[in-house]
Amino acid sequence: xxxxxxxxxxxxxxxxxxxxxxxxxxxxxxxxxxxxxxxxxxxxxxxxxxxxxxxxxxxxxxxxxxxxxxxxxxxxxxxxxxxxxxxxxxxxxxxxxxxxxxxxxxxxxxxxxxxxxxxxxxxxxxxxxxxxxxxxxxxxxxxxxxxxxxxxxxxxxxxxxxxxxxxxxxxxxxxxxxxxxxxxxxxxxxxxxxxxxxxxxxxxxxxxxxxxxxxxxxxxxxxxxxxxxxxxxxxxxxxxxxxxxxxxxxxxxxxxxxxxxxxxxxxxxxxxxxxxxxxxxxxxxxxxxxxxxxxxxxxxxxxxx
Length: 305
Hints:
Strand content: 5-15%
Number of domains: 2
Largest sheet: 6 strands, parallel
Oligomer: single chain
């Protein structure tokens, strides 16, 4: 195919693995690396080359896509990749790394002669596996054609937010969106916890708001995960949400505003992680309402009928 590219994906967790699969299905030559090799090996039977090091993964790549835990991890891995990087290659940085880290990574790209795209995504496991992510992207207009086949393979739509990836306009939008996602998930957990404490059937609450302005698909999705105890595998893990919540609070402080709900939500998520729910879905923040980990009072309240 005319747009066939060699694409290196660094980080094959929930999102990175799904992106690598969709890139391979789109006909691109895909090379991957992950710190825990077993997470990458599963891709070996799907036409994906699994490399032993970041430098080997990025050899001759037209586009490098990073989907790691945080900005520090991206910086470390890309420095390891340096010997294999090709000057002029495009770097699609999709990790939720924060504004300060984005600038640092853009400077690193400039140092190595790479074209930097700030390109976090909105979506969780299922849309990632279906290639239906929403890509938020910033980068030079004249070079966007080089990464369009990659973005089209992993996402249903790309929203361009700016021409300079170093300005982190896409990351800024991602933080705003995630502040809403985290707030909504925390509110869902607290509402169901209150229902349990007051002896209210949660289905009565959901029925009461059905079809009205207070109803929301995301509320019902997260409520179902809690009520049916389907918190694993995670679509968006509590531990990742802890990191993102801290980035949101930090960004607000750096820009002179106070986000009381975001700060409280960050503390609530950290408490759920400390209780042992870090690898479960974000909805597991529900458990932060209960003091004693493992106590019988933590059992989710189920809808009747």
